[in-house]
Amino acid sequence: MNESNIKANGWALLPILVFLILFLGTGILLGDFYTMPAVVGFLIALAVAFVQTKGKTFNEKLSIVAKGVGDDNIITMCLIFLAAGAFSGAVSAAGGVDSTVNLGLSLLPPGIAVIGLFIIGCFISVSMGTSMGTIAALAPIAVGISEKTGFAMAICIGAVVSGAMFGDNLSMISDTTIAAVRTQGCEMKDKFKRNFLIVLPAAIATIIILFFLTNGSQFNLNQDLEYNIFQVIPYILVLVAALMGVNVFVVLISGTVLSVIVGLLTGTLEIANVFTSIGTGVTGMYDITVISILVASISALVKENGGFAFILEKIHSRVHTYKGAEFGIAALISLVDAATANNTVAIVIAGPIAKEISDDYGVEPSRSASLLDMFASVFQGIIPYGAQLLSAATLTGLTSFDIIPYLFYPYLMAVCGIISILLPQKKKAK
């Protein structure tokens, strides 16, 4: 079916509602959010989407799903999950995590260890252009810092996720940045300048909050904090290569290979365990990869049935002023991201209607691109069923809801974004 012929249909959003009721409802009622695994919830939602899709054979429905799953962004994201898992498994087995944690604890004053996690997360995510890769690399370090400092695990991993979303929003090589810029027709540098000035206060405020939350906490430096600088090299390689603009796959694969070499040379990794350590890291990402495939499948059917058209139509019909246009773009991308649980896909879906709104009301392309990317990152960073929080929870043994109260940066980014809309803006010359 041609997109222009898809009729708006609010009932098409039922699969998403079913998932939310199952996933959130069972967790709240039973007090355990592991009662309903996200994979099972999404499978049930997918079954509902299949039943809802009328007038098509089962094979035609499968074809729609296959096209959704086969989207470049979905396939790329799934492969990044696996590559990040391989790196995480290899670098952990080679002793890189322990050495990096101990090195950091030896160099950082106790009161800023968690702040350091946030800043490093910002730096790595901006360099690599992927929040998932950043979380995979830093989550084990967050666990180590939590264990050795006594800081709550949720605070430590919250700092990591916050830093990851900072770069996911701003990085020049991030899929979300590329999608936002392409759909709005502006230059990356212009979007970056606008975006950075808005979110910088949020980053500074996050650092201040983390300082007061963790200030006064101490850990005993007399304990064993041995580290091998060679085991830290894989992390340094990943960071430097990403800064140089090297493709994220090349970065992660190179980091994996170097981790194996370092592990063998330092004696922390045996030849017999090389592939098992990599395999362990990769299999740790299976759930998230499957969830991404299921979400893409559901989104394809919801879109086909008019669910996304319904969202877009409702927002577009309520836009009447310049500020209303900006709020409309922000609300649009927020709703679509909450529905798809994938900020890149959300931007691709919402981009065309956002472009139409911005053209009608004189919103500059770099401004609309900034709003799209920023609010997509806000919601992607806080929804409990998003890949970022699910990954962070998987790697730390927490639940998404344990982490949510400590995601200070995404919340502050939303506040800064709203304030920027309320302030006077330069309109695009017509």
* Helix amount: over 70%
Could you give the distance between the termini? 35 Å
Number of strands: 0
Largest sheet, strands/sense/barrel = none
Q: What is the typical, i.e. mean, pLDDT?
A: 83
Number of helical regions: 21
Uncertain residue segments: none
Structural class assignment: mainly alpha
What oligomeric state do these chains adopt?
A: single chain
Strand content: under 5%
Q: What is the global morphology? A: globular
**What is the N-to-C order of secondary-structure elements (H for helix, E for strand)?**
HHHHHHHHHHHHHHHHHHHHH
Q: Determine Rg (CA atoms, Å).
A: 22 Å
Explain how this protein is built.
The chain has helices at 14-30, 38-52, 58-69, 72-93, 96-107, 113-128, 131-149, 153-170, 175-184, 188-214, 229-243, 248-266, 274-283, 286-304, 307-317, 322-340, 343-361, 365-380, 387-396, 400-403, 408-422. By secondary structure, it is mostly helical. It has a domain at 73-173 and 188-283. Helix 2 (38-52) runs parallel beside helix 14, helix 4 (72-93) runs parallel beside helix 12 (248-266) and helix 10 packs across helix 21 (408-422). The model has no long low-confidence stretch (mean pLDDT 83).
